Amino acid sequence: QVQLVESGGGLVQPGGSLRLSCAASGSIFSINIIGWFRQVPGKQRELVATISSGGSANYPDSVKGRFTISRDNAKNTVYLQMNSLKPEDTGVYYCNVLKRGYWGDWGQGTQVTVSS
């Protein structure tokens, strides 16, 4: 099973940008759906972006127009570009792959804090 490592989080002011990376231990070429999630303590993990093997992306309304997911199969990496960040975007961000209808094991995630 492919192992995923998230990075790129940090502290940013409202209105700022961050780019998260999700590096896979193996090839992601054949993986159809890869997703980015975020979790805030006390709340359910929220799906914020998915991308298919063909490059089709989907977002919930809460991040649409501000977040962009992309994948580089040659580098086995998936990115999440986050612009116009808001305090409510704060959380731990995770990436994961959908296989046979189930999301895989969760990694450590990367903390994103949006605060002035």
Approximate shape? globular
Q: Report Rg.
A: 13 Å
Q: Order of SSEs, N→C?
A: EEEEEEEEEEE
User: Helical segment tally?
Assistant: 0
Largest sheet: 7 strands, mixed
What portion of residues belong to β-strands?
over 45%
User: Structural class given helices, strands, pairing?
Assistant: mainly beta
Distance between the termini: 40 Å
Give the oligomeric state of the chains in this entry, treating copies of one chain as homo and distinct chains as hetero: single chain
- Pick out the low-confidence regions: none
- Roughly what percent helix? under 10%
Count of strand segments: 11
Average pLDDT reading: 95
Describe the protein's architecture and organization:
- The protein has 116 residues and is an all-beta fold.
- It is built from no helices and 11 strands.
- The chain is globular, with a radius of gyration of 13 Å.
- The chain starts with a strand and ends with a strand.
Secondary-structure blueprint of this entry?
Blueprint: E1 4-7, E2 10-12, E3 18-24, E4 33-39, E5 46-51, E6 57-58, E7 67-72, E8 77-82, E9 91-99, E10 102-103, E11 110-114
Parallel strand pairs: 2-11
Antiparallel strand pairs: 1-3, 3-8, 4-5, 4-9, 5-6, 7-8, 9-10, 9-11
Keywords:
single chain; 116 residues; four-stranded antiparallel beta sheet; 11 strands; globular
Task: Report a brief summary of the structure.
This protein has about 120 residues and is mainly beta. The protein has no helices and eleven strands. About 0% of the residues lie in helices and about 50% in strands.
